[in-house]
Design a protein that fits this description.
4 copies of one chain form a homotetramer. With about 160 residues, chain A is α+β, with helices and mostly antiparallel strands. Chain A has helices at about 10-30, 30-35, 70-90, 95-105; strands spanning about 40-45, 45-50, 60, 65, 105-115, 125-135, 135-145, 150-160. A 6-stranded antiparallel sheet of chain A has the order 1-2-6-7-8-5, with helices on one face. In chain A, a hairpin with a 2-residue loop joins strand 1 (about 40-45) and strand 2. Chain A is elongated. The interface of C and D includes residues 33, 104, 112 and 118 of C.
């Protein structure tokens, strides 16, 4: 997924891109902010984020269980972030602004989430990795773990990219 | 899906059940409340709810587009509600409390959402219908429409029931 | 999905296209032939095909149940056919050959199948309809019914189109 | 997934179980035989099988590409096999016959397949691992690789178990 021949952006420009992606993802995508998602790591081979439990993310009041919708929203959002990072690698000759601009043309085609265990706990971690990055379609796989590294949910999503 | 031989609950008790389901779904499931979901209709052959657009449900700041995660959360939640109503029909001899108690043993197994068109508008309507209600597994299909009845997304989910 | 301004192909050319699609789908796509799929209807608003039960399509020997893989293969194949017909409508100014040529650039992005009831019987009917046909992505919904019109499975698939 | 306290079946009985599972999966599930699936490995942490290309598995005649339906059928079938092996581990006190009998009560709830790259080649390998094994629901993740270990497709499926 590296553009071998293309001039690689400087480390300062890479930092600008990482900061811009983080700002966009945590704050400008307002629903991510409502969920309280925070970026943990942005790497070409995968990205991570954290979701802290709070009362209004509860789905099942009897158990204080994380709502399935909060899980699927987190995994969808993180899949998109993984693809943005991969697009930044693929187009390593582009400025941070040019890469960010690509987000404007990206859209989720579909999402599947498997809910494996109850989401009970105070803090969750989500990971996403790109499984395909073509000229038109990108695909990602995602996982949500609780604070004991127990697998709570897995997901897969496809996106239109350009 | 009707329990032919079983004594049917009274219309007063049915109203109690509908009110209890609405209260549970709109308020006690706190994440539904955060989304602002409102029940429109509870029928054995399908349920509807409404989701009003607001700034913190935005996914794509350039277009003010509804976040995919808000769509998938809405469809997941509505699938569960359709199944609760169907369980109420199947167990028509049970009190409202007994039916509500069944929610405590229900869980989403998995969810798929297809995002067909951009969610742009001020108000969305979601519909869900039950495609299977067995002794252990329930399945539902869901749709999200914008205010011009344009199909924005479709979904399918399976649930553990008892 | 009609190309209002474009010259519409003649009914003879439309028949040529329908025949070419049927030949391609039933015979040139060899795995469809192995399954024994037969086109029943090709309409812009949906397509149908038939799958006859036979011993080597069995998944569950105890019950003579249709294999889930035969179901998902049928639904995947029929979704693709529905899109080809829709592409034929969209490009109503193109010859049969030009439309068939578009199949060469089509590919399934992903598929989901919900298995609702056991596939027991001697003959099944599958239906597919297009839910989105954009410039790059097409989406379809599919259903499999048994000979008593009982819903056996539902499916959804997304495709790259051009 | 081990039943710590239960008496573990003898290695002879384990071999009987592995042979019975292989026979059932390769031959008695007739559609698997039609596909030509062959078991490569049966381990509690995952199973593998092989699918050899041949003319009647082709989906796309222009490229000799493996049909998406053959891919989804393979992944569905392998997910079921992984669960049968996991059930054999969970019920390590049961005879081979008792474990095989559990297959009669197993059924796929749903399946999703992501088609990542074209399936071109002479031989494919599929892997499946169990991500959840509860009392009622089992879930698996699957992958299909070509002979160069390139990832062709990923899948996820849920099953009713008992």
């Amino acid at each position: 997924m590296t553009a071998a021949a293309a001039p690689r952006r400087s480390s300062a420009e890479q930092r600008r891109l990482d900061d811009a992606l983080t700002l966009m993802w945590e704050q400008r995508i307002r629903f991510n902010q409502l969920l309280g998602l925070k970026v943990l790591s942005l790497q070409p081979d995968g990205v991570s984020a954290r979701l802290d439990m709070r009362a209004d993310l509860v789905g099942h009041y009897s158990y204080g269980r994380l709502h399935g919708g909060a899980i699927s929203a987190t995994l969808d959002a993180l899949g998109g972030l993984a693809l943005m990072v991969a697009l930044g690698e693929k187009h390593a000759d582009e400025s941070a602004d040019q890469v960010i601009h690509r987000f404007g043309r990206m859209g989720t085609i579909d999402l599947r989430v498997d809910f494996l265990r109850q989401g009970i706990g105070s803090r969750f971690t989500a990971h996403a990795a790109v499984t395909r990055l073509g000229g038109r379609i990108g695909s990602t796989q995602m996982r949500l773990l609780d604070e004991h590294e127990l697998l709570i949910a897995t997901g897969a999503a496809s996106f239109v990219v350009s």
